[in-house]
Amino acid sequence: MRREHRISVGPVDGGWAVRCEGETQPLLFLSGRRAEEHARTLAQALSRTGDEALVYIHDRSEALVGAARYTARNSTAV
Hints:
The chain is an alpha+beta fold and 78 residues long. Helices cover 22% and strands 41% of the residues. It has one helix and five strands. The chain has one helix at 32-48; strands at residues 4-12, 15-20, 27-29, 52-58, 64-70.
């Protein structure tokens, strides 16, 4: 069964956080660019497993400035 994962990148004190819906602990980064790269890498990995992922990018004011959908690349249902 395919799942849809929501991944968000946003500011935190001293850096940036990558949060994946359903996970309790965010991943923390000093650089927003690194946080975005990690979120996209995570989304690509999830798409290779047959799931889909939505990545939301927020700026320092927490406004949504970007979004991307990573569709399932594995069409075989498990």
